[in-house]
Write a structure and sequence with these properties.
Strand content: over 45%
Distance between the termini: 13 Å
Mean pLDDT: 92
Structural class: mainly beta
Length: about 290
């Protein structure tokens, strides 16, 4: 059931806080900061996916000072490889499973290093539920992914590409894929604003200053309703699907995240999100959670 957005007065300044808001500025000194766990963040370590049985490295997640603002901290998420599958190293940070309808937004810096080495590097901001099983048929996933070298293109057109994907279901063991997808050849360099809106039976994706969504998803190619139907987590990941066997030198891809924002049951435009985040930062609100 949708709840009305109620205004709460902030004791931290002049900013009004809204029920159903989540804001994370990633102002942590390091990954051992106990507040990370207290606030529901998990840094994935050990064997995980994608790809199946891949090595996820906790130390590939770090927090660094913003070179353009000493008061700001940036989340860094790395991936690296040599010329063998076993050399691949990936990283991921994810929240608890508690999000569904509303607006999701992030300020993220994409990296093009693996375009030069022709490795299949995937840089992702997404929402996802628990793995799909026969006992738990509900599944939800909304992805915004950037590939500096588009290893997924069946025609060998490997120029940088954006993938916006909304899934009805996915089971790797049974090679089951049912999704709506938007693909565009586009090079993303530097900082970008990404918004995912999940409202009124549609999933809409926005990038930077686009007044209209770059993609709106309702139905998959198989005719399935792809609208999320179960609570999800927010996640950022940097992983590699395939390496260039001719490149022996170890190479590293690093994506950066300034902040992530969510508000329940409300569709905010890019300008509205940006103004809201700037207002929170102005009042030195580095973390906010008014969700029930």
């Amino acid at each position: 059931m949708k709840r009305p957005i109620k205004i709460l007065l902030s004791l931290l300044g002049f900013t009004c806080l809204f029920a159903g808001e989540f804001f994370e500025d990633f102002s942590y000194r390091n990954t051992l900061d106990p507040k990370l766990n207290e606030r529901g963040w998990t840094i994935v370590s050990g064997l995980s996916a994608p790809p199946q049985n891949a090595k996820y490295i906790a130390k590939y997640i770090s927090f660094t000072k913003d070179p353009n603002d000493d008061a700001n901290t940036i989340l860094e998420i790395k991936a690296s490889c040599r010329n063998t599958k076993d050399s691949m190293r990936h990283s991921r940070i994810e929240s608890g499973i508690r999000f569904l309808e509303g607006t999701y937004a992030t300020r993220i810096h994409f990296n093009n290093e693996m375009k030069k080495t022709k490795d299949g590097n995937i840089q992702a901001f997404y929402t996802i539920s628990s793995p799909l099983t026969e006992e738990r048929p509900e599944y939800s996933e909304c992805d915004f992914e950037y590939l500096p070298y588009d290893i997924w293109n069946d025609m060998g057109k490997t120029r940088p590409a954006i993938y916006a994907s909304t899934w009805e279901n996915y089971i790797s063991d049974h090679a089951t894929e049912d999704l709506a997808q938007y693909i565009k050849k586009q090079k993303l360099k530097g900082w970008h604003l990404v918004i995912i809106q999940i409202m009124n039976g549609e999933v809409s994706y926005y990038l930077d200053n686009s007044q209209k969504p770059i993609a709106i998803h309702k139905i998959s190619d198989k005719g399935s309703d792809v609208y999320p139907e179960s609570l999800m987590r927010i996640a950022f990941s940097n992983w590699i699907s395939k390496v260039n066997l001719k490149q022996n030198k170890r190479r590293t891809s690093t994506i950066k995240v300034d902040w992530v924002y969510h508000i329940e049951n409300k569709a905010l435009s890019l300008n509205e999100v940006y103004k809201r985040v700037r207002l929170l930062q102005k009042d030195d609100i580095r973390y906010l959670d008014t969700m029930e």
